[in-house]
Amino acid sequence: MFSMMLIKLRYSDELFWTASLATVTHPPRAEQQLQLMGGFEEKAYLAGKQMKPGEDPYREHAFNLQESNRLGSERAIRDTRHYRCASVNYDADLPPTSVIITFHNEARSTLLRTIKRWAHARTRERTHARAHARTHTDARSPEDCQLLSQIQKVHCLRNGRREGLIRSRVRGANAASAPVLTFLDSHCEVNADWLQPMIQRVKEDHTRVVSPIIDVISLDNFAYLAASADLRGGFDWSLHFKWEQIPIEQKMARSDPTLPIRTPVIAGGIFVMEKNWFNHLGQYDTHMDIWGGENFELSFRVWMCGGSLEILPCSRVGHVFRKRHPYDFPEGNALTYIKNTRRAAEVWMDEYKQYYYSARPSAQGKAYGSIAERTALRRKLNCKPFRWYMENVYPELRWAHARTQVHAHRCTHKHKNTRTRTIKHMHTRARTRTHI
Ligand SMILES: [Mn+2]
Q1: What does the pLDDT look like over 3-15, one tens digit per residue?
Q2: Separation of 322 CA from ligand 1 center, angstroms?
Q3: At what angle do helices 372-381 and 333-348 cross, to 10 degrees?
Q4: 312 C-alpha to ligand 1 centroid (Å)
């Protein structure tokens, strides 16, 4: 009887649930779980793809698969939000959202934790789910989709050929039934009340594109670690994403740790955006392949065409950050990244693209296809010039450029002073937390 009450609270009265059970991050009760999981047979699903004895646990997924499998499909995680987040109120009539998860040969245990944590953290009956399967190239995978579709509200679509992250997301977005889209990576664990802060901000202003603070799940032991709440997304002229400190003036002006953080770019794997706004702004550049660069294209487009990007400190999602891609790129990793970022630079960066080419000289002369459709889109939407973005959204980029030069120069002097060491540290962190 008590667990039935819990279900009712979770599904029908978000405000009450938020206020009374905000710190609960333990797995759902048995009856609830049964309801959510429908005819899905978890044990058979997980057992269907086990490691072979003596196999390197990092080989296939670039994280410790043995440890991930050992954890099972759910576990308690710490509520990493600032304590004041628990007393923030959200509207009772938040719009529903479709969650779009794209994956390519994801490990079953990480994918299932992503879906189950999301499913039980789901706080509204009208919050729909769509898990959208991206390319499966090996023979073992087709059944993943059929099996996962047995979970309540999960619809799994499988591409006929390998399409990559970008085109798969567009397919998922087109299939979504809710007015708000939530893009989620396939090796995540969502934390307490992760959706409400994001949906609330989008409800208040449909031009906002919002993302959570992305906590770190260790690729070695799967420990859930709180990320700093003082970071935003940045990049250098080679269009390499990095996490960076919020500028000091902005940090000093933050009187309330629950307030949104403006960010020049998003990491790209996890964000919420209104579906109409996503479509109005031209979805994604579907000529980009596999992975990478799409977060710059989307971020420039959102800012320059009338929207904004935010990180919401009261929304937290854990993500397994890896050091290498666990899958291969048909055209090669470097070439694909160059093609995608070059398309972003050519369409959006105006005269500033020269800095991209000087930071990435190998990009010159590499094929990137026709950009006619995207430049036409930019004209149609009457977007602001990149100069405006530089002056109003990311003026620190000039400094980042100068600093990279300083760093490169000082590296030859074996880090004689502390300032250089600080810079080196920032660079190292940026690399290890690249979103893959
Ligand atoms: Mn990822």
Answers
A1: 222 222 222 222 2
A2: 8
A3: 40
A4: 19
Q: Which chain residues have CB less than 5 Å from ligand 1, an ion?
A: 185, 269
- pLDDT for 238-295, tens place per residue? 999 999 999 999 999 999 999 999 999 999 999 999 999 999 999 999 999 988 999 9
Place of tokens 């904004």: 308
* CA 54/CA 250 separation, integer angstroms: 51
Measure 320 CA to ligand 1 centroid, in angstroms.
Answer: 6
Ligand 1 midpoint to CA 249 (Å): 31
Residue 23 has pLDDT above 70, yes or no: no
For ligand 1, the distance from its centroid to the CA atom of residue 209, given in whole angstroms, is: 19
Give the Cα separation of 368 and 348 in Å (integer): 14
Pick from 215, 23, 195: nearest CA to 122: 195
Range with lowest mean pLDDT among 137-151, 295-309, 326-340: 137-151
Report pTM: 0.84
